[in-house]
Write a structure and sequence with these properties.
By secondary structure, this protein is mainly β. It folds into 3 domains: 1-51, Laminin (Ribbon), CATH 2.10.25.10; 52-101, Laminin; 102-154, Laminin. The chain is 8% helix and 27% strand. The protein has one helix spanning 142-153, and strands at residues 20-26, 31-37, 42-43, 49-50, 57-58, 64-65, 77-79, 85-87, 91-92, 99-100, 121-123, 126-128, 133-134, 140-141. A two-stranded antiparallel ribbon has the order 1-2. It is rod-shaped. The model is unreliable at 137-154 (pLDDT under 50).
Length: 154
């Protein structure tokens, strides 16, 4: 009984997901056979299996890290299949998805009728604070607190 290689493909017909049917040579049997060479991100006899990346890793080689926190400090975005950040609906990419497209005065999510002050954005019933401000509606400048601390220390 002769053992022969079984070819898994024929000239770019049976490989899936842009796999390439390539010839390989077996020196023991001195014969050629064909197999699918799979692109990054795919595996299997016919490149039919999509490799799954670990949580928060994306891209064809699973090397791009992206975590979507949906928080005031880190931004309001999701990660696409390549690991690129895409702002959630209503948030602008102009500042890493930290600013809402709607004025806080008109936002029904705002905790107060006056909206968030000094460029704050409303989120989950409170205000997301710009980096230089603090307080429940961000009406206190952090530079004010540093100035008060300096006066008290001197």
């Amino acid at each position: 009984m002769n053992c022969e290689y079984l070819s898994t493909c024929t000239a770019n017909v049976t490989c899936q997901n842009n796999g390439t049917c390539t010839a390989a040579y077996d020196s023991l049997s001195r014969s050629y056979y064909f197999q699918c060479t799979c692109p990054n991100g795919y595996a299997g006899l016919y490149c039919q299996e999509k490799r799954q990346c670990p949580l928060n890793y994306y891209g064809s080689n699973c090397t791009v890290y992206c975590s979507a926190p949906n928080s005031c400090s880190q931004g309001h975005f999701q990660c696409d299949s390549d690991g690129k950040k895409t702002c959630l609906l209503g948030w602008t990419s102009a500042n890493s998805c930290l600013i809402k497209n709607i004025s806080s005065y008109l936002d029904s999510e705002c905790p107060v009728s006056t909206g968030c002050l000094n460029g704050g954005s409303c989120f989950n019933g409170s205000c997301c604070c710009p980096s230089a401000y603090t307080g429940s509606s961000y009406d206190y400048s952090l530079s004010f607190f540093f100035l008060q601390k300096e006066i008290l220390l001197n």
